[in-house]
Amino acid sequence: ATPTSIMAGTGRSAENGVLFKGGEHVENTRGVQTIVLDKTGTVTKGEPELTDVEVASDFQEATVLAAVGAVEKNSEHPLAEAMVKGIEGKGIAIDKAEDFEAIPGFGVRAVVGGDEVLVGTRKLMQTSSVTIESAGEEMAAFEKEGKTAMLIAIGGKYAGMIAVADTVKETSKAAIKRMHELGLEVAMLTGDNQQTAEAIGKQVGIDRVIAEVVPEQKAEEIQKIQEQGKKVAMVGDGINDAPALAVADIGMAIGTGTDVAIEAADITLMRGDLHSVADSIQLGTKTIRNVK
Ligand code: ADP
Ligand code: MG
């Protein structure tokens, strides 16, 4: 494409809220075969809400939630924010925690009132030798509804479960349909549980779900698709997504996302919905076609 046609293309796209970092990226959207979407904050609103609490028979709900709130108050994860808000909303006074530690992709731990409190995935419980018994089945039931369920352990014992749900953006399904019409394969990449991710994926028409990917491995998953000979565009919003955005042939950051993601990307989507993804692919193709 000539510089003028690219300028015209980027100008038109800017009106639509699609900001290319440079003209070369317009051209580069040509031939993209696979779109990889981050789940939380990209396909979904990224504003999870507390939905369910289950407590093991030896424990009391208020005590368990006060401990969970104490730990999660130290975490900056959107899941943590949802739990703290939900617990406070129940009128429960949150305890104080010490020795907080975040284990990216697995959960969090801290000491509350002398007891170690863990909140997170099955793997977190396994690696800490906490037996969850039949709780795994209840957890799976929440996950089939698209909720993210987290297990709670206090003093080395299974104490309960807490579930949050994040809703999909109203526009995600229609935007993914447009991507399909453009001949693109659409995958979703997340650190969340496989079943939760599949339930969300089904709601919006995702072709392929890649779940339970720890933050450091998101970029590797992009490389794997590239090794299959595919040209990949990655769309994300979080700090976690930055390496994957950089590795992808085209990185697209949601404009309301973190600065780190925006810096790593080639395109910023100001509108924050997935129609902009289809727009940018379409625009790149059109700009090229105009000069032929
Ligand atoms: P995503 O890619 O969806 O942002 P993450 O990689 O951040 O997911 O987290 C993966 C999983 O780790 C979560 O689904 C959750 O089970 C667990 N987890 C992460 N942060 C927390 C937290 N603050 N409290 C409890 N569990 C957490
Ligand atoms: Mg995200």
Automatic annotation (TrEMBL):
Domain of life: Bacteria
Cell compartment(s), UniProt: Cell membrane
Task performed by this protein: Involved in copper export.
Entry's family note: Belongs to the cation transport ATPase (P-type) (TC 3.A.3) family. Type IB subfamily.
Protein name: Copper-exporting P-type ATPase
Residues of the full protein shown: 463 to 754 of 806
